[in-house]
Amino acid sequence: MAAIAERRWVVAPVHWATRAAWFAFAVYFVYALSHLELTPARFLAGLDYGYKFLTKLFPPDFQRWELLLKGLKESLEIAILASVLGLIISLPVSLLAARNLMPTWVTWPARMVMVVCRSFHPVIIAILFVKAVGFGALAGILALTVASLGFLGKLFTEAIEEISLKQVEAVRATGAPFMSVIAFGVVPQVFSRFIGFASYELDSNLRNSTMVGIVGAGGIGGTLFAAFQRFDYDFVCAIILSIIGMIVVGEVLTNAVKKVFRA
Amino acid sequence: MNNAAASVMEREWRRYEPGERIARFVVYAAIVAAVVMSIRTVEVIPEFILDAPEQVVDLLKRMWPPDVASYPKEIHAALLDSLHIATVGTVLGVAMALPFGFLAARNVTPWPWLNWMARLILISARSVNTLVFALFFVAVFGPGALAGTLAIAFHSIGFVGRLFSEALENTSPGPIEALRAAGAPSASVITYGYWPQVVPAFWSLVLFRWDINVRESIVLGLVGAGGVGMALDNALNLFQWNRVAMVLLAILGVVIAAEVAVTYIRKKII
Amino acid sequence: MTLTDTGGAVGAALQIRGLAKSYVRGKPVLDGITLDIASNGITAIIGPSGTGKSTLIRCINRLVEPSSGEIIFEGRNLVTLNRTGLRAARRQIGMVFQEYNLVERLTVMENVLSGRLGYVSPFKAWMRNFPSADISEAFALLETVGLGAHAHARADALSGGQRQRVGIARALMQRPKLLLADEPTSSLDPKTSVEIMTLMRDQASQRGIPAIVNIHNVELARRFATRIVGLSGGAVVFDGAPDALGDAHLKNIYGGESWLDGGDS
Fold first, then answer.
1. Backbone angles phi, psi at C11, to 5 degrees
2. How much is the ipTM here?
């Protein structure tokens, strides 16, 4: 039949709304780019500065290693304490926020608390705590605890909301007290995921604990910021390399923990 | 199981295998030791801890009521700047991350040394905090939105590149094999074999990263890299607590709006 | 056609009086059920899907809250019990579920031991510190249900029939005075279904406890039950011995009749 030769195949047409959305985004993108005030002269000057900057970074200067080590240690302490505190607080809060276990009037306030904690960057929270409790590690610990509550709380709540209620029902039917229902019906279903989330949060706190010092909340960040302001770039390089080293070691360790718990 | 064996087992029930028990015990012991050591050596003045709740309440009191009048004058434009920084930074970051993602994926790039090079770059980008990149770019290009945008872009490379390469490695090899068997060139294998399989993962991680970047763009102003963080810094330095409260409220609004938008778009396109 | 051969309340292990339940106001799922369950034997509850069989069973141990009526068990009205009293009552009622409802990430042993949770303090339960008598009994029960070798396996590694055996062991672990089973065989193949029903019948009769079993399969009900209760539209429409259940009754319970001919149409 001749009709076979006539048949044509056309790629499925893109919906006009999708096209319009892409066009609008492209216009916006160009507009936003223009806000950056990037002129060729500035770009070239930047390349020149950048080159000088990079040459000043190397070789890294580890002479003040005692200062470096002290800062790293304080960052590590902040991360550990904030993670543990955040974990302890977010367990009950996420249980309260789980819509499958609690009534709405309980979940709503718990969720609001977590949203507010999650909305602010840890460094912003750190500024407020520095103003409230003064410079030092305490402000960093409190700031990262709040941030941990926001993220862990959200992840925990989602994990609890995904559990099978049938398994919980069966434990309840044995006449077990409430805490035993949690221990046998809920915890086994979420435990390994919780371990995974908690180690993720420890990694994340370790990263942020090296930054809160920029606003005076303790840890290596303060040393880093000071070195930057003194144009002490070879020390800056040493600090950054050490931070990277600590974060990588931290990730290796938390991965090992996850393996132990099969998370 | 015979009865003798059963009777031996009777009182022997334990929750985990011995090796597993030891491993878990070691982990728990290490956690306790780390916490105890941290508490003992961290430089925190105990009186400050007791004092902290009171101080926080006092701070909140000083913040109330928020200075609404300052929003149109000093906050609105800076807030939009932060959004521009986040969006442009994400787009640039994703554009730079894609090649590294392809290079890092072992099934796409069959040369191990290239995989490792790409991975090293991705890990480095991820390990250097946005704020550190911001300090660097402020030193290079001077204060302003350009430094912030580049900081966001460079840090995003690590996150987007790693997740994208993982998505590539999780693609099913069947269609790829079929295309190769049909003699398709490598570029076509990517566009017809890999890309359709990773599109949903790609968009979802771009949206996720944008959401994170909105939060990060707000801090950048503290080191002079543009956006609403500079307004916050000014208000803080002048102890204008009511204005600080207004900035924080505005940030809260933008961040929640961004999260809602991301959830909505994700539902639409995936 | 309600109270027939089981007759009066003398010796009844469970008395249900005017039990009603509506999830939506004005649309009762159970509409005034009155039943006496004798102190032994298997009572099979049959009826079309959505007629409230599951709700009836769940009202007995109040996994579903009844809207009105009385349930007398061990001299107490379960419907009005407070939380503590309800937990104490639930300990004496073992329950077997359609989809087994094992805690999948726990081992078989932990699942069986969870039948003792009502008797062990939450802290000891958390530490898995159960009395050794309970542990011995759990091993014995696992032998009884034929899973002695699987005590350390995780529940999600078992087949459906094996899981239901664990479910039965868990219920028996409570040393119950009443056994409830909600469609215990609906997720199983015909051969395993017969094995599971045999196990439940034998265990119930050995322990001298009554069992109430929701069941879809009329043939299984006839084969294993000592009494059949037919539910339709939230009310009891048949109550009698398996032999007394005829086609006319089935038509009354399930409606229609073409399915009774055994034709393939």
1. 80, 5
2. 0.81
